[in-house]
Amino acid sequence: MIPFIILILINLNIVFCSKKSFGKTLPATLTGTTVLIYFSQLLFGTFNIGILLCLGLAIMGVVLLIWRRKDRDFLARCFSVGIWSFLAIFLFF
């Protein structure tokens, strides 16, 4: 359950920056986090730095969600159909 929450929170950063819906930015988040973690392994010889960077991005997502909680357009993009389908796929598989 933890990776699911972390991916959602990281994706909130991408939703905010790109002004696109959750479902459209999710593939970029999944690919980007994978590349980030493996690139940290290549450079530093450990996955820990990439994982810590992903956790930092997730914390930024929480801060962003609290900061923009009154922005209806941002919340509509965050809680679009994409997040519910991601939740359904994650829970069933």
Overview of the molecule:
Helix content is 85%, strand content 0%. The protein has 93 residues and is mainly alpha-helical. Helix 1 crosses helix 3 and helix 2 (22-44) packs across helix 5. The mean pLDDT is 90.
How many DSSP H or I helices? 5
Q: Average pLDDT value?
A: 90
Radius of gyration: 14 Å
- Helicity, as a percent range: over 70%
Q: Say how many strands there are.
A: 0
Instruction: Give the uncertain stretches in residue-range form.
Output: none
How large is the share of residues in beta strands?
Answer: under 5%
Q: How does the helix and strand content classify structurally?
A: mainly alpha
Judging from the principal axes of the Cα atoms, what is the shape?
globular
Q: Ends: how far apart?
A: 12 Å
Order of helices and strands: HHHHH
User: Could you describe the largest sheet, including whether it forms a barrel?
Assistant: none
Please sum up the structure shown:
This protein has 93 residues and is an all-alpha fold. It has helices at residues 2-18, 22-44, 48-67, 72-78, 81-92. The model has no long low-confidence stretch (mean pLDDT 90).
Mind sketching the topology for me?
Blueprint: H1 2-18, H2 22-44, H3 48-67, H4 72-78, H5 81-92
Properties at a glance:
mainly alpha, globular, 93 residues
